[in-house]
Every structure is written in structure tokens, then in C-alpha cells.
From TrEMBL:
This is Ribosomal RNA large subunit methyltransferase G. The keyword Transit peptide does not apply. Specifically methylates the guanine in position 1835 (m2G1835) of 23S rRNA. GO terms for biological process: methylation. Residues 1-180 form the RlmG N-terminal domain. InterPro entries: DNA_methylase_N6_adenine_CS, RLMG, RlmG_N, RsmC/RlmG, SAM-dependent_MTases_sf, Small_mtfrase_dom. Its EC number is 2.1.1.174.
């Protein structure tokens, strides 16, 4: 496993979720570039530093012994990685304060270090929340690999912070320096809302939600095939997003016991607000988590899932396969996993290998809806 060596620390870092023979490292050249630049600034020991979207804790763990660090992001897996990497490198768990993106950070901060996220709406919301949180003379620095740095990121920094200057490229990474200037308090365009026609619902979506402006086509294909009138089953909406699958299932199954889980804090926040707007005080469980890793074995009868095919900028089926494995462990004998997926992803073969018993319950030209039954 590669070691992150910077002027601040020498760290052995891991990604989350862990996998055998991990092909990717937990930091990149943008982290190294940003830390090297910071070292040239001679950080005061009492400086307050805010780190945004620190993928696996590389920035926060590097600075934890030198300044007061607050880390904020929307990924529960990133938070888990930070906790594990602090412990792995002998750093106190309280040496970094973590604030989920569903909550507002509390400044003032002397330095704000931003890893540019894939979803620029999240960046925009984070920059809006920085209003009145910056100390006099604060530095705001964004970092990214050039291939993941859209021009819009600089435009957002200029709109909400101030004039932006780009660094030279180093190892295909670049820094953006934004000079804070006084600006009127901005009004956030988030959360957004959209309506469903069938069933007739309005759904709220915080900034980092996938398909924030409208129902994604996979879920649209899935909804007409959700099972109905199944009584008081224990049901999980795995990777719940704004909660639409679990919420609609609950409408058709008024006795069902629902658990909604997502690794995005803003997804959980959206799903919670949507559930309460539609179902009122009907009991349910909701949490930010590493899928169903915390779910007791054989504690569910049904799992609904529209699995993701990327983690940050990395595309692949590793997360989906992991969710299928977690679902099998959490299902009781005879329990079912229902998923929707693109035809070309070949989920039928993967589920057949894992569950044995798989059938197609619906299809569109692009998607298939599959049911896998735990037989043992």
C-alpha cells in the first residue's frame, strides 16, 4: 500500500470500503500538491482549518497534529475512512472534528481546503454556507486532478468567494486560489423539488442528490413493479437516495416496517424529510451507513435497491456487488432482493452466482428488474 509522505506527516492510508488487492490508493497528486503548498505558508498552531470533501482523510489526517482541523463532507464512507486512518496512524480520534454535509459548519476558519466534488451542486452549497464563516485574511484553496476539474468550479469560487487564480499544473493536479471579498449573503437554490405523476408525490432533494432535478430513469422503470399488499414485512431501501422506493413501497404496503439506508448524509436528510412529509409520524428507521453492514443477520424479508455504479470519480460494479452480498446476509431464508439495473451490467449473472434463484420481474429496452431469493 503506497505511503503518503508530505512535510506534515508520513501516513499509511486505506480506502473505504476495503477490498482485497485494492488497485487504488487513498490519496492522489492533488492532495500532495495542496499539502506542499500549505507547508510553504507556515501555518500557525492555532489556525482553524476546514477541509471539505476529503475522500479518505488524507488531508485531515496529515494536518491533525499541526492545527485545529474540521472536516466536512457528504460521504459516510469517507468519514469511516477518516476514523480508521486516524487510528491506523496513531492519531487521537478527536484530533479532527467531523461535520456531515447535512449540517452547517461553524467558523471562523483561517484556511478552507476543498477537494472539488463530482457534484458541483454540492460545491455550490458548501461555498454558500461559507458566508460569514471566514476569518479576516482567510485563504480558500480548491484542489483537483485536472481531468476532474471543470471550469464551472472556478466560476462558483469566484461567484461566492472572490477572484480566482489557478496554479500551474503539477503531476496533472491543479490548485485554485480564491481571495475572499465582501459579498451580500447568498440565497441557496437548494433543496430542489420535483413531482411524480404516479403516485402523485412531491419529493425534496438536497444538493448532493443523484438526479436531483427529476426521477432517474432506472427508478422510473422500477416503481411500477414494486410488490404490493405483502403485509408487515421487514423491508430495507438500500442506497435510498431521496427515499422514493421505500416511500412508494410503504404507500402500497401500509403495515410494512421500513428501513432506509444511504452512505450520503444529504440523501438521508432528503429521505427523512420526504418520509415525514408523505407518511407523517408513521414509524420507520433511517440511517447513514455502509450499506447493510450494520444490519443484523436474517433481520429483513425484502431489500429494494437501485445500486450505484460509481464511487466519487471511480466507475465499477464493486459497490453494487458489495450491496448484493450485504443484502443476502441481512435477509432471512426465503427473503428477496429486488433490484433494477442496466441490461448491459449483467446483474442477473452476478445474482445467480450469489443467490442461485433469480428471476426477471420486469424490463424496459434499457433496464431489467430482477428478484433474487435467499434459499438457504
Amino acid at each position: 500500500m503506497p505511503i503518503l509522505e508530505t512535510p506534515f506527516a508520513r501516513l499509511d492510508l486505506i480506502r473505504q470500503p476495503e477490498q482485497a488487492n485494492e488497485p487504488l490508493q487513498a490519496f492522489d497528486a492533488a492532495d500532495e500538491y495542496l499539502l506542499a503548498h500549505l507547508h510553504e505558508q507556515t501555518l500557525p498552531a492555532n489556525a482553524r482549518v476546514l477541509v471539505l470533501n476529503d475522500g479518505f482523510g488524507a488531508l485531515a489526517a496529515s494536518l491533525a497534529s499541526h492545527v485545529r482541523v474540521t472536516s466536512s463532507g457528504d460521504s459516510h464512507l469517507a468519514h469511516l475512512a477518516l476514523q480508521k486512518n486516524l487510528a491506523r496512524n496513531g492519531l487521537p480520534s478527536d484530533s479532527v472534528t467531523f461535520v456531515p454535509a447535512s449540517q452547517v459548519v461553524s467558523g471562523p476558519f483561517d484556511f478552507v481546503l476543498i477537494r472539488v466534488p463530482k457534484t458541483l451542486a454540492l460545491l455550490e452549497e458548501q461555498l454558500i454556507r461559507l458566508h460569514a464563516q471566514l476569518a479576516p485574511g482567510a485563504q480558500v484553496i480548491a484542489a483537483a486532478m485536472i481531468k476532474h476539474l471543470p471550469r464551472t468550479a472556478g466560476d462558483l469560487l469566484e461567484k461566492y468567494i472572490g477572484p480566482v487564480q489557478a496554479s500551474l499544473a503539477v503531476k496533472k493536479a491543479r490548485l485554485l486560489f480564491a481571495t475572499p471579498v465582501d459579498k451580500p449573503a447568498p440565497v441557496s437554490p437548494y433543496p430542489t423539488r420535483y413531482r411524480l405523476d404516479e403516485p402523485r408525490l412531491e419529493l425534496l432533494n438536497h444538493a448532493n442528490l443523484f438526479c436531483r432535478e427529476g426521477l432517474d430513469i432506472g427508478t422510473r422503470a422500477f416503481l411500477p413493479h414494486l410488490p404490493q399488499a405483502l403485509g408487515d414485512l421487514r423491508v430495507a431501501d438500500l442506497g435510498c437516495g431521496n427515499g422514493v422506493l421505500g416511500i412508494v413501497y410503504a404507500l402500497h404496503n401500509p403495515q410494512a416496517q421500513l428501513t432506509l439506508v444511504d452512505e450520503s448524509y444529504m440523501a438521508v436528510q432528503s429521505a427523512q424529510e420526504n418520509w415525514q412529509a408523505i407518511h407523517g409520524d408513521r414509524p420507520f428507521e433511517i440511517r447513514a451507513g455502509d450499506g447493510l453492514a450494520e444490519q443484523p443477520p436474517a433481520s429483513l424479508d425484502l431489500v429494494l435497491c437501485n445500486p450505484p455504479f460509481h464511487q466519487q470519480q471511480v466507475i465499477g460494479d464493486f459497490l453494487a456487488w458489495r450491496m448484493f452480498t450485504q443484502a443476502k446476509a441481512a435477509l432471512s431464508k426465503g427473503g428477496e432482493l429486488w433490484i433494477v439495473g442496466n441490461r448491459h451490467l449483467g446483474y442477473h449473472h452476478k445474482l445467480k452466482r450469489l443467490f442461485g434463484n433469480v428471476e426477471q420481474v420486469g424490463a424496459t429496452p434499457k433496464f431489467v428488474i430482477l428478484k433474487a431469493t435467499r434459499t438457504a
